[in-house]
UniProtKB/TrEMBL annotation:
Keywords: Flavoprotein, Oxidoreductase. PANTHER family: THIOREDOXIN REDUCTASE 1-RELATED-RELATED (PTHR48105). It comes from the Bacteria. Residues 4-41 form the TRASH domain. It holds the Pfam family YHS. This is Thioredoxin reductase. InterPro entries: FAD/NAD-bd_sf, FAD/NAD-binding_dom, Ferredoxin-NADP_redctase_2, TRASH_dom, YHS_dom. SUPFAM superfamilies: FAD/NAD(P)-binding domain. GO terms for molecular function: oxidoreductase activity.
Length: 358
């Protein structure tokens, strides 16, 4: 599959957005990227300066980008992918407008809004560093650096690991972190799911038609939404181990078992399983902001009611922040709020500049 030469997003042969240059045919994700490509050829220049840069392509970042477009903010979105953790969600329930929708379906709708309905410049790339200067912020990617007067960090979270013996040894050889394609690798086998929240119990539900016995290992009482708990507990093949912690993964070339221990006891119990799916929470991807801001004890970015941070012109939204509730719908709302707040900040800068000049 080819990549869009402007933003780096994968595009297929069926895309209607094409352009020919110097005898070569180029394909694009959207009309906006096609027009940007053609204008860059004509003026022989590539933009590297914006009013706002949004970092992160999850629900918070994508919503912020769409709102930036509707608010007519000169903005650039930079992300290593589009979707973030939402792409792994097999069931998103009661997102406004939908009683039920899968994560990939919801992300497709976000993406369509971003690149077709409310286009802004976007780049699929890893952000290596963020620096503050007199003009605002400098964002470095492997290929180039970009400047902006305001910055919006919406880098989300990544899945936590257990940090126990065997976890790294059996990565992709029996130890998984809840991705849908991994379910086919344990078809017909007994499996274990470690965790007690919504993500863990949704994995249990998805494994029901695929796996044999499903061992649910949780170090405390289940913490998922009550409706999710009730559905999962009706699964006949579910075996619950509440109050237990995983101690070690074992096997030869492939995982064959996990040893668990009840809290407060010494005795370990070996469970023979072919696959283990770990869903023990997430940790904020706040490393980029760490040199510029003081993080809280959980590594989150503290924000005000308007998504502002302790540094002027730097806003943050979604799961990377200390905002209450780690939900897709909350992250999306925070992204919208942050974009509106960034616009107010940029308007204030413009007014102040006009006063100074007069």
């Amino acid at each position: 599959m080819r990549k869009d030469p402007v933003c780096g997003m994968p595009v297929d042969q069926k895309t209607p957005f094409t352009a020919e240059c110097e005898g070569k045919m180029f394909r694009f994700c959207s009309e906006g990227c096609r027009e940007k490509f053609l204008s860059d050829i004509i003026c022989k220049s590539t933009r590297d300066s914006y009013d706002l840069i949004v970092i992160g392509g999850g629900p918070a970042g994508l919503t912020a980008a769409v709102y930036a477009a509707t608010l007519r903010i000169d903005a650039l979105l930079i992300s290593r992918d589009l979707g973030g953790q939402a792409i792994d969600s097999t069931k998103v329930e009661n997102y406004m407008g939908f009683d039920f929708i899968t994560g990939p379906e919801l992300v497709d709708k976000f993406r369509h809004q971003l690149i077709h309905s409310h286009y802004i410049d976007h780049l699929i790339a890893e952000v290596e560093a963020v620096e503050a200067d007199e003009e605002g912020y400098r964002v470095k990617t492997p290929a180039a650096a970009y400047r902006a007067r305001a910055l919006l960090v919406a880098t989300g979270m990544t899945r936590r690991k257990l940090g126990i013996p065997g976890e790294e040894d059996f990565q992709r050889r029996g130890v998984f972190y809840g991705n849908i394609p991994d379910f086919s690798q344990v078809e017909g086998w007994d499996v274990a799911v470690i965790g007690g929240g919504n993500s863990a119990l949704q994995i249990v539900e998805n494994l029901q038609p695929v796996a044999g016995a499903i061992h649910l290992i949780s170090n405390s009482e289940l913490k998922a939404d009550q409706a999710v708990i009730e559905r999962a507990c009706r699964i006949p093949s579910l075996i619950r181990h509440e109050g237990f912690q995983a101690q070690v993964f074992s096997g030869d070339k492939h995982l064959s078992g996990v040893a668990i221990r009840k809290r407060g006891e010494e005795k370990m119990v070996e469970i023979l399983v072919r696959g283990v799916f770990i869903a023990v929470g997430l940790q904020p991807n706040s490393g980029l902001a760490a040199p510029l801001l003081e993080l809280n004890e959980r590594g989150e970015i503290p924000i005000g009611p308007d998504c502002s941070t302790s540094r002027r012109g730097l806003f943050a939204a979604g799961d990377v922040t200390d905002a209450f509730g780690k939900r897709i719908i909350i992250a999306a709302g925070e992204g919208a709020k942050a974009a509106i707040a960034a616009r107010e900040y940029l308007l204030h800068l413009k007014k102040r500049k006009c006063v100074t000049q007069s």
